[in-house]
Amino acid sequence: MDIPQGHVVRVVGESGTGKTTLLRLLMRFWDPQKGTVEISNTNICDINSACLRANEAFMSQDTYVFHASLRDNIKVAKLDASAEELEAAISAAALQEVIERLPQGLDTMLGTGEAQLSEGERQRMGLARAFLHNAAFMILDEPTSNLDALNEAAILYSLAANTQGKTILLASHRPTMAAISDISISLS
Ligand SMILES: Nc1ncnc2c1ncn2[C@@H]1O[C@H](COP(=O)(O)OP(=O)(O)OP(=O)(O)O)[C@@H](O)[C@H]1O
Ligand SMILES: [Mg+2]
What we know:
The chain is of the alpha/beta class. The protein has one domain (8-30, 43-186): 3-Layer(aba) Sandwich (Rossmann fold), CATH 3.40.50.300. 35% of the residues lie in helices and 14% in strands. It has 7 helices and 7 strands; from the N terminus they run βαββαβααααβαββ. It has helices at residues 19-27, 49-55, 70-75, 83-92, 96-101, 119-133, 149-161; strands spanning 8-12, 38-39, 42-43, 56-59, 137-141, 167-171, 183-186. The chain has a 5-stranded parallel β-sheet, sandwiched between helices. The protein has a two-stranded antiparallel ribbon with strand order 2-3. Adenosine-5'-triphosphate binds next to helix 1.
């Protein structure tokens, strides 16, 4: 399959057909046993890992929460992010109202025994990380699966507004994702 640069490509398919596996191969979490994965006509096995990571933003299906503040949890995507960059990522991921509800806002500690985020809130935190990383190639695994219609609409709007110069590959069952996708690829 080809993922043309500058397009939004959606991967659909029933559970277990390999959507997440495909996305992870592009991140080089594993090397393929058969075939090759190429980016800009270069086999990713020949691309330096730091360079590959700099150019790819990956949002996994489960967003990991570190025992740290919400601010630091988002900034793992870009440790030296400025306050403006952080603000923009939070806004793009529709996370602002979550922060306003937390006792210490962005400084609220997350993790075991501390403030907990709901699945949908964690997912928006994962999206904020992806937006903050601001890579040319965004790889999103079920980015809105746990969100209600209102928050999903906010995310769709942000993704559509951030596609300039970006290539976005997303795995999603949601028919709503078709609205922002140029191409759909079905796995079976
Ligand atoms: N780490 C792994 N090692 C071996 N097999 C795996 C591993 N991860 C997933 N699989 C298997 O590979 C197949 C594809 O899994 P994958 O997670 O890519 O599916 P998916 O299309 O993303 O499904 P879903 O819609 O449920 O997220 C499944 O049969 C799964 O059991
Ligand atoms: Mg999956």
